[in-house]
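Usage

Read records sequentially. Each one opens with the input sequence:
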Amino acid sequence: MATSRLIFTPQDSTQAVDASQLLQLLTQLELITQPSYRENHYLPGDGFTSLITFLGCSPNISLQPDDSDADDNHCFISIVSTTQQIKCLGYTRQCHPKCPHCRKRIADWQSSNWQQPDALCQCDKCGSETAYAHLNWKHECCFARGGFSIANIYPHEALPTDQLLERLQQQTGVVWDYAYANNQS
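and closes with the structure output:
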């Protein structure tokens, strides 16, 4: 079963942030609570709702597990392990990238190897070739070496605040971005 996620990564997919530094920062920001609920499964902290903006008139978000929550149907934060290679961390089923050269939507983009960051995608509008990791995914897909995710946030249900993105950048020295995912993890 697919778990919807809001994934945070360095904007430059080649950059990585030390997982222990990231964990310390998320605790300091009160985005997460310590210790973990389970291994690499952190519950939202006191600052969570001031750092993540929920959209719509009445989102139904469970921030704490209950006794019947054996399937982890509540919001929780996990650190995405840092890897040496860039990889596709998640995507929405309706993602459609845009060409970074002509800025137009690429019609026939999905090949059998599209999740390989170095595989090339040819724009049907301008003919330029771009690695899949460098296409404009409009927050619908992300390629990175690591980061963190918030589980059980549906695509476009929530946004990070500018304050969260600025604090992440100030403390890590890298610009951060986010993407939604609802693919099989």
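Summary fields computed downstream for this record:
- The chain has a mean pLDDT of 90.
- The CA atoms of residues 98 and 104 lie 5 Å apart.
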